[in-house]
Write a structure and sequence with these properties.
Number of strands: 12
Order of helices and strands: EEHEEEEHEEEEEHE
Distance between the termini: 9 Å
Shape: globular
Radius of gyration: 15 Å
Strand order of the largest sheet: 9-10-11-1-12
């Protein structure tokens, strides 16, 4: 089994125009702003406080500016187009939660990965996960097994690349 780190295909696609500060006020006061900003590192579920939001994509100078089917958003989250959600939702749902976001007239989903695995001993049962050991110097990211990579490739979904880590 091969483990892959998921990254954006940086030079071709637009980015989601959404930041943590856009939804931080929807969270209760007993959750600190620092904890919310570190939601991925803290393995925090966002769905209980997720507001309904409308956003778009940012055009990036020097890129082709295609709209991605799937993209890394922040840390261990993935943005899924309606098509990507339809094709990958069942595979990813045991590994995290989906947060709806409205872009133009469509509902996209942000997948917040909540599954944690040791990269060296990852189980084939998890299609996506984040590493159990992350230092402060290393950005947390989404990792996956062949199952997710193969599904993304077979459905010809565009926007991410896979880097083998083992």
């Amino acid at each position: 089994m091969t483990i892959f780190k998921i990254d954006n295909d940086d030079f071709r696609f637009q980015e989601l125009d959404l930041f943590i500060d856009d939804f931080i006020d929807a969270f209760p006061e007993d959750i600190s702003d620092i904890d919310i900003h570190d939601f991925s590192r803290n393995n925090m579920a966002l769905a209980p406080h997720w507001p309904s939001m409308v956003t778009g994509f940012s055009v990036i100078e020097g890129r082709e500016n295609l709209i991605p089917d799937i993209a890394v958003w922040i840390d261990a989250t993935l943005l899924l187009s309606p098509k990507a959600y339809r094709l990958l939702g069942d595979l990813l749902s045991p590994c995290g939660e989906f947060l709806p976001i409205h872009i133009e007239d469509e509902t996209y989903q942000i997948f917040n990965c909540l599954a944690v695995e040791d990269i060296k001993n990852a189980s084939q049962s998890k299609a996506a996960f984040k590493p159990s050991r992350v230092s402060d110097e290393i950005n947390i990211a989404t990792y996956c097994t062949d199952r997710l990579r193969d599904a993304v490739q077979s459905f010809e979904l565009q926007g991410i690349v896979f880097e083998s880590v083992n």
